[in-house]
Amino acid sequence: MNKKALFEQLVPFISAVHQTQNDMTKQMPIGELTKAQYGILEYIAVSQPITLSEISDCKDMSMPNTSRELKKLTDKGLCVKISDAEDRRKQYIRLSPEGEALMGMAFGYMEDQLAKKLEGVTDETLEQMIQAMALLQRTIFQAEQ
To answer: Rounded CA gap, 5 and 69, in Å?
Structure first.
């Protein structure tokens, strides 16, 4: 398969990932959080510790909007800011214990939704899916460590 064919498969795949994430979270009981606030918490949960600018970049929000939403989340006790030990001007954001509990509930809910979609899938197919996602992560998505 050439790179163009891969690209033609990647575009609908990314769209399907977004739609699936929406389907898996739209009925999630997340209290009074907005979708934007939930998205920020989800990103912090999988990337912490993280900076305000990294959140802004990933969520495609302006720095002032990101800062405002982060303040709301901090006021709700769901995340905390931690100063860098070497550069006190730099701050990292982490989930608070309450935020960890909320995201644990959220990820549990999503896991239940995924289990429903995977009913009847064989162990062999599950292993292939795990390997395929690992390959995508290493090559296309290349999560920075």
So the answer is: 39
